[in-house]
Design goal:
With 187 residues, the protein is of the alpha/beta class. The chain contains nine helices and five strands. The chain has a single domain, classed as 3-Layer(aba) Sandwich (Rossmann fold), CATH 3.40.50.300. The chain has a five-stranded parallel β-sheet, with helices on both faces.
Length: 187
């Protein structure tokens, strides 16, 4: 267990990249660590959620849901950042787990003021994501969200640590992050 100074980690990647597992393991490596799962924030919306449980459509591509979905993404990003900053001020290492690809990464960087701030973009191959997805019954994210791999690779600013975790276990990915903190640090 590390006795690290307060800091914030943003662990990003497409759905199925391993963000939640890696984030929870990483937070557990610190004497005072917290895992902020943005999916949990989304689930707090019990009525009017653009991402209804069991929904088999991408709400960002559905015109009737697009505006609500965009607002809810911005809201969940803002709340994840607020929680991260709050835990940071109380002496914790906060690990935020969110899909911060494309322009969304800038939204997080603009809202997170803490230093040190580490950004890790988990970038396993699509084949690895497909295989991981197949091993998660009841949580099929590949068919709907695999297109985000191109968004991540083509439009996301190259800041922080980009890590191809295709051949790594979650524990190995955490070790890789901890051994490459200088690359991950953005401030």
């Amino acid at each position: 267990m590390c006795a690290a100074s307060p800091s914030i980690f943003l662990i990003s990647g497409i759905p199925g990249a391993g963000k939640s597992t890696v984030s929870a393991l990483l937070a557990g490596r610190f004497r005072r660590g917290v895992h902020i799962d943005a999916d949990v924030l989304r689930l707090m919306i019990v009525s009017g959620n653009a991402w209804a449980p069991g929904q088999d459509v991408n709400p960002l591509e559905e015109p009737s849901l697009r505006d609500d979905a965009q607002r809810q993404l911005a809201l969940r990003a803002r709340h994840a950042c607020m929680l991260g900053e709050s835990f940071f001020r109380e002496g914790y290492v906060a690990v935020i787990d969110e899909i911060a690809v494309g322009g969304r990464l800038g939204d997080f960087l603009d809202q997170l003021e803490a230093s040190p701030l580490y950004v890790v973009q988990l970038a396993p191959s699509l084949e690895a994501v497909r295989a991981r997805n197949a091993g998660r019954p009841g949580k099929d994210v590949y068919a709907i969200w695999s297109h985000l791999d191109a968004v991540m690779r083509e439009t996301t600013p190259r800041v922080g640590l980009w890590l191809d975790s295709s051949a790594q276990t979650a524990a190995e990915t955490v070790e890789a992050i901890l051994s490459r903190l200088d690359e991950a640090r953005v401030r």
